[in-house]
Amino acid sequence: MRSSSNPAFRNLPRGGTQTYGQYGPPVGFDQTQGGAPGYGPGQVTSGEGDRPMTVDDVVIKTGMSLGVALVVGIITGIWAQTSIAETGRLPGALIGAMIGGLVVGLVISLVIIFKQKPSGPLTLAYSAAEGLFLGALSGVFEAVYHGIALQAIIGTAGVFIGMLVVYKTGAVKVTPKLTKWIVGAVVGVAVLMLFNLIASLAFDFNPLRGGGPLAIVFSIVCIGIAAFSFLLDFDQADRMIRAGMPSKWAWYTAFGLMTTLVWLYLEILRLLSYLRE
């Protein structure tokens, strides 16, 4: 499989032991073929006791993960806004929820990535943890900038749908060259974020996240890279489908898409806050 900027999709297995009838493997949602996803009329069997994954599997599992994150996020966000409105300050419990969600989400993501095994419970737990973190954070932003959370959600959904259309129509082809460019860009941004974090902690110097012109440009660049990362995510999901990997791997695909969605939402939320100042 082609490499991806998303660590969740690195070093994946090459597929199961599925065999197909004379009409071949299930149809994916790649850039070269039209038509609805699904199976050909041939018989499908699985050496692993599980049918091959389809686009429907990916959509359902991703929708479930996103739904959990949204529900937890909305509840947490309402709690955060109410607490701040009543006390006029940031409650310790809210800070704990924010940090707890961040840490738990990070730990679960590392477990999923390094185990390289699909898990519905872990993926949903990751989604819940990220919903807790993002909900608390969004509640804090919402208390300062009314309506910013909804704008960030709409923006994230718009970018996701837009990149799916771009991928489906083949307007931008996922080539090895583009893949290397996106992976390099993600690594470069990660390095810059690390140096900026060290500088902010050690020297109180925060140029990339301080809200100035450079911070705005950096957030726009991050949003662009996150958006293009979706193309690689879609391509990896499509390759997994065409490799005939068991349907349970749709959970792994959903996890990978969720990590990109979380990053994109954070960057859009951050950019909107800069523009409100």
Automatic annotation (TrEMBL):
<feature type="transmembrane region" description="Helical">
    <location>
        <begin position="121"/>
        <end position="141"/>
    </location>
</feature>
<keyword id="KW-1133">Transmembrane helix</keyword>
<protein>
    <submittedName>
        <fullName>Bax inhibitor-1/YccA family protein</fullName>
    </submittedName>
</protein>
<keyword id="KW-0472">Membrane</keyword>
<feature type="transmembrane region" description="Helical">
    <location>
        <begin position="215"/>
        <end position="237"/>
    </location>
</feature>
<feature type="transmembrane region" description="Helical">
    <location>
        <begin position="58"/>
        <end position="80"/>
    </location>
</feature>
<feature type="transmembrane region" description="Helical">
    <location>
        <begin position="92"/>
        <end position="114"/>
    </location>
</feature>
<feature type="transmembrane region" description="Helical">
    <location>
        <begin position="178"/>
        <end position="203"/>
    </location>
</feature>
<feature type="transmembrane region" description="Helical">
    <location>
        <begin position="147"/>
        <end position="166"/>
    </location>
</feature>
<feature type="region of interest" description="Disordered">
    <location>
        <begin position="1"/>
        <end position="51"/>
    </location>
</feature>
<dbReference type="Pfam" id="PF12811">
    <property type="entry name" value="BaxI_1"/>
</dbReference>
<dbReference type="InterPro" id="IPR010539">
    <property type="entry name" value="BaxI_1-like"/>
</dbReference>
<keyword id="KW-0812">Transmembrane</keyword>
<feature type="transmembrane region" description="Helical">
    <location>
        <begin position="249"/>
        <end position="266"/>
    </location>
</feature>
